[in-house]
Amino acid sequence: MTDKISENIFLPERLKNLLSRTMAGSAPTRDDCVYMLSFEDTSVEAGVIRAVANTVSRKRFNNEAIILGQMGIETFACPANCRFCVFGEGHTKFPDTEMSIEEIIERAETFCSGKDLYALFLMTMHEFEIDRLLDIVKNVRKAIDSRTKIVVNIGDFDENQARELHKAGVNGAYHVCRLREGTDTDLDPDDRKKTFQVIKNSGLEFYYCCEPIGPEHTAEELVDQLFLGVEYGCFQHAAMRRVFLPDSPLSGHGQISELRLGQILAVVVLASLGCVTTDNIAVHEPNLIGLTSGANVIYTESGANPRDEATDTSKKRGLDVAGARKMFYEAGFKAIRRGDGSTVPLTLDYVQSFFQ
Ligand code: SF4
């Protein structure tokens, strides 16, 4: 029976050859990546691409899972005006909010209470007040477990600001030149890339992502954008789909499926073989198809979230840390890696202990 099934599976020679090379550790070319994105997400070819990426990633990252936590600490109509974001100033209906330091610390402690959070992300709008942010970082650093790193997800910044953030206790920065940056946003793609270099020069870890993916993006656009993370030596690569928000200017394009996101993520995983500094791969938002297509990182969320109309995403779209552990267990991961590199076995007993 097995033989009969395998006899009937046809894979194009080009795909077989390039996937064999990736299994041996060799990164696909840009053309190969465009080719892998050309298959229907329900096809055998796409299924095999995801399976190979899953195998390559588990081996590369030792089948260890990473849980991140992101907190949106303030919101206002954002001048970057990203047409996919709930905070864009041209269309936002979101109220202005600002968390107090006390609330930020309380939420940070909740994120870190199980000791498994690899890194806590502090997110602002494109514009931010550096002195307040430095103050928040110093206070959060004192309050949370020393094993948890701190990462910022903020607008563009210069080398002085990067040095100050690093000195205050920041370990990394999430920064992206988004798909159609400058067309679907009011930002200059070159400014985004300048900040990549600032991040690299300052010794911060560089978190990148192929985002925000919609049905209208071509395979070539996806490949050009995802290769920026490879070229700039990202610490984390990732894939994120654009979430359908009825009032956003891009809502007419709709939303890709988690299955298509898994296929794009798989290509990110294989392309990242060309980047020696890539340490882990994330999928946003958390989902099992992504975790079985090569991702070993998911984000839990609290406070404001660009993909959620609720003022506190932990009550709506945002997953919590206990839910993240469970999702990793279901996806077959064997350990959780913490921010200091130590690991804890991901057993059923361990997962369930956080639900009692
Ligand atoms: S995605 Fe970020 S930069 Fe763009 S509008 Fe939203 S908050 Fe501002």
Please give a structural write-up.
The protein is of the alpha/beta class. The chain has a single domain (54-353), classed as TIM Barrel (Alpha-Beta Barrel). It is built from 13 helices and 13 strands. The chain has helices at 2-8, 13-23, 30-37, 44-60, 101-112, 130-143, 159-168, 189-202, 219-231, 258-271, 288-291, 321-330, 348-353; strands at residues 64-72, 74-75, 97-98, 117-123, 149-153, 172-174, 205-207, 210-213, 236-241, 280-284, 297-303, 335-337, 343-345. The strands form 3 sheets. Strands 1, 4, 5, 6, 7, 11, 12 and 13 form an 8-stranded mixed sheet that branches. Strand 5, helix 7 (159-168) and strand 6 (172-174) form a beta-alpha-beta unit. The longest helix has 17 residues, at 44-60. The radius of gyration is 20 Å and the shape is globular. The model has no long low-confidence stretch (mean pLDDT 94). Bound molecules: iron/sulfur cluster. Iron/sulfur cluster (SF4) binds next to loops.
Q: Give the name of the CATH superfamily.
A: Aldolase class I
Number of helical segments with 4 or more residues: 13
Could you give a short account of the major beta sheet? 8 strands, mixed
The top-level CATH class is Alpha Beta
Q: What gross morphology would you assign?
A: globular
| Count of individual beta strands | 13
Ligands, deduplicated: iron/sulfur cluster
Low-confidence stretches: none
End-to-end gap: 45 Å
- Please trace the helix and strand order, writing H or E for each element: HHHHEEEHEHEHEHEEHEHEHEHEEH
Per CATH, what is the topology? TIM Barrel
Structural class from helices and strands? alpha/beta
| Mean of all residue-level pLDDT scores | 94
Number of domains: 1
Fraction of residues in H or I helices: 25-40%
CATH architecture: Alpha-Beta Barrel
Percentage of residues in strands? 15-25%
Rg is 20 Å
